[in-house]
Amino acid sequence: MTLPEEEVAEELTPGVPGRGPRRAPSRGRVVVRRFLRSRQGAAGLAVLVVMFLLAFAGPLLSPWSYTDRDFTAFLQPPSASHWFGTLQTGADVYAVTLRGMQKSLIVGLLAALVSTALAALVGAFAGYFPGWADRTLTWLTDLLLVLPAFLILAIMSPVFGEGTWALFVLMLSLFLWMVTSKIVRSMTVSLKRREFIQAARFMGVRPVTIIFRHVLPNLSSLLIVDATLNVSAAILTETSLSYFGFGIQPPDVSFGTLIADGSKTAVYAPWTFWFVAGLLVVTVLAVNLVGDALRDAFDPTSTRPR
């Protein structure tokens, strides 16, 4: 692994006299150091932490719940009693916006984790086991690639009723893993020819053990970056589906449902639309900045972190 000049110099610097040479930093420490030196990565991470704190701790600061209604303040602008204003129903915009951000963040994180895990397993098994296993898994991947994901999720929207958002996350995950799976498969085929994999096979190590102990750890950088970028993809997909009424269903809310409702009154009551739209843009931008910085930190051939 080629390291930046400053890090190479640090590794070559002799240790304290009498204590021997300094131990070279682990790959994980090098990646963390490169990530934190990236201005865009540090900024994205800071904004993301603020978004999570706002989503999950912010509701504690307001006397209003997302289910409460103020029947004396319909479609009122921001004020001391309603910081983000109110909706046509009298709901507090601050409360429902943070509730929607909670749901969208949870859906994005879970969908990204499930889809990345699925891509890792399918790609690794397809690449390691040639023959019928590879052909079957590759056929399944190609089939899902050509299916219209948005249309299928829209058709299944009647089953995404109240309390079934976990099913929606699962269905969303099923259409986010295929491209990464093909990349994992090709990298597994290459890793399978490496000496340490061959040695493990000659020693009688089971194939499944080799996959989980040797193949997948060597693909960790790809999987971590893919999971990070999948968060923003899942949030945007959930927002699009919910905007058209195919995602999170009432009485629960998400970014998509709030933007759909706010777009009807955005001209004469902009606070019903722009607060949630702004938080969506900031959240997705922060996730993408973190993903790009992680990709640069894991890639030893990249330029100095920005």
Automatic annotation (TrEMBL):
Pfam families: BPD_transp_1 (PF00528), OppC_N (PF12911). GO terms for cellular component: plasma membrane. One of its GO terms (biological process) is protein transport. It comes from the Bacteria. The keyword Transmembrane applies. CDD domains: TM_PBP2. It is found in: Cell inner membrane; Cell membrane. Residues 1-10 have a biased composition (Acidic residues). Residues 1-25 are annotated as: Disordered. The chain crosses the membrane at residues 42-61, 105-129, 136-159, 165-184, 271-290. It is a multi-pass membrane protein. InterPro entries: BP-dependent_transpt_permease, MetI-like, MetI-like_sf, OppC_N. Keywords: Cell inner membrane, Cell membrane, Membrane, Peptide transport, Protein transport, Transmembrane, Transmembrane helix, Transport. Residues 101-291 form the ABC transmembrane type-1 domain. Belongs to the binding-protein-dependent transport system permease family. OppBC subfamily. This is Oligopeptide transport system permease protein OppC. It comes from Nonomuraea rhodomycinica. The lineage of its organism: Bacteria, Bacillati, Actinomycetota, Actinomycetes, Streptosporangiales.
